[in-house]
Amino acid sequence: MRAPRVTVPLLLAGLGALAAGVGLPAVPGPESSATVAETPHATLQEFPSVPYDGTYTFVRVRFNTGRRGFGRGLGRGGGPGWAHDYPYADDNFIKILDEVTLLGPNTDGTNVIDAEDPDLHNYPIAYVSEPGEWAPTQAEVDNLASYLGKGGFLILDDFRGNREWAQVEAIFNVILPGHTFSILELEEPIFNSFFQIETLDLPPPTFQQYTPIFLGIHEGNDPEGRLMVIANFNNDIGDYWEYSDMGYYPIDLSNEAYKFGVNYVIYAMNR
User: Which helix (H) or strand (E) holds 157?
Assistant: First the structure.
């Protein structure tokens, strides 16, 4: 591989029967409603970015959060939720995407873009870490609604439990009124867009008391329509990406996490 930091042996076979016998729970009901924050998020230092040139660039969304400060570092476990696993997960993933596809992604760097920034519309796919911490401003709601309506695709990752689910569900009731999350099955096109995903039973790297489930929002609530949002609920594939060069997790599980990410990008670029 050209990318020496990432030790992934060509994304071979699936997991087999890991987490066998663990059924998917019903979608938890909301415990509270999201409220739109009055003030924008705190300003952080500028992140290294790459200029727009029309090629696929990995984009992470920076959003307003009301629960965690900005005092610590970012990757390897620190920082606000939106920045968890940054920049290692983003960098590792883009190297794998470049290795296994002909997409020709931008390998010079990745971008962090504020949720209310109109520049987000330049990028068809955006990754959101820990959306359960999101306290959206009206500007963020308006921009994300426009972004998704014009063909954008959001990946929600690294959140778990009924409280965080209730927050995420309430947020998207505001961003996409009239749309609801539904449980995604293995036959969903996104799980077959590049790799043939063998199972959706990808064990979470942490908080293993929760049962992972994939949920999505389809345009117009039509199950045959375009998938606008995918949620890795009770899971954290970004953690697998971040630590794939550290030996913390089994290689097979890191491979599977990369497969999901590659499929998300290929699906969204072709819809």
Answer: strand 153-159
